[in-house]
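Our collaborator T.R. sent over the components below with a one-line note: 'Predict the complex.' Nothing else. No constraints on interfaces, no templates requested, no preferences about which chain binds where. So this is a plain run: every listed entity goes in together, and whatever single assembly comes back becomes the starting point for the next discussion.
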Amino acid sequence: MGELPDSILIEQYLEGDMKAFETLMERYKAKVFSYILRMVRNRGDAEDLFQETFFKVVRELPTYQEKGRFKSFIFQIAHNACLDHLKRLENKLRDATVDLVSNQPVPILAAVDAGLDPEQQIAHQEQTILLHQAITSLPDNQREVVIMRYYSDLSFKEIAEIINCPLNTVLGRMHYALKKLKGLLGESS
Amino acid sequence: MNRTHCDSETLILYAFEELSPREFVAVKDHVAQCPQCLAEVQSLRDSVSLLALLPQDEPSSSSLNAINAAARRAVKKNLLARVRAALNPRWLNPQPSTVALAASIIVVICSFFVIQQFSGLRPYTAEQPQVLKWQDDYASSLSLLQEDMPSKVPELVSRDEAPQRSNYLATVGVRDSEAEFHKTARELDESLEFLLEQAGY
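Returned assembly:
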């Protein structure tokens, strides 16, 4: 059976079919969670923001007008939740009341490919950790464009709408981020 | 894109295949002949391929359970609201704003009739100026008749004094008799009533 479009799944869910909702979740949970995790760089916060994002999606679905933009709709909510969180965190840091130990980033490990030999697996893990560190070192505005493009697969035009920036600004940030990533990973290797 | 090289934004869109088919062909032709732009595109593609190493992370099962529970509650609430709406049509359960609006309209209409009843005013209509003109004409006609028939006539004229009356009328030069005056006044009354009826009063 081919994949049902989001619009049909939303309709079925609103008619009471929880299976349809689970299918939607299955489709987007890893992408949205990965995006949030790389934005806030803390697993505990990412779990909270992931729940907050989907609670809002569930609340707004009865009045949501599906026009083939559900993915964009979810990422818009996730993006706003991350921005609010980062602002709150910034304010806390400014007030020096935050417990810095609890906000240390959690190391992110790649899933191990069972087809690789142990040496290749170690090399793969190392490369992934380097990439993660390189992405973490990007300025927030460049990081959000790179990870949103990678995890959401939205077009640059849609990303520009979500982050409320001109298209050329988004393209410029992507350009600088890719150059910087290549530079950082080149230095490390 | 300038004449010599493509700008970085265009190259990004080209590397991610987001240009329109026509633009894509134009950039592709340019890149094939321009080593500098080709190197730039290659560099971008290398960086993009690096991103493929980024893992996809899964949220915890407790987060998923909490979201599923919220979704179940939300859809149940939504379905209940729809059933309630079907059982109680909207017009049986009007919104407070609708009730207030209907009450205001009723009050305005009632006030209009009450004011009209106690003030003796008739509602304004397009015929009103015409009716007022008829009333003026009637009053003018009556005053003309009264001028022609001095107020002393009823005192002077009686059944026994018919000759004096005739003499008096001849003396003052009145051509219309008292009976004619009343007849004319009655005719005017009837005409006015007819006209008022025609005008819907």
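Summary for T.R.: DSSP finds eight helices and no strands in chain A.
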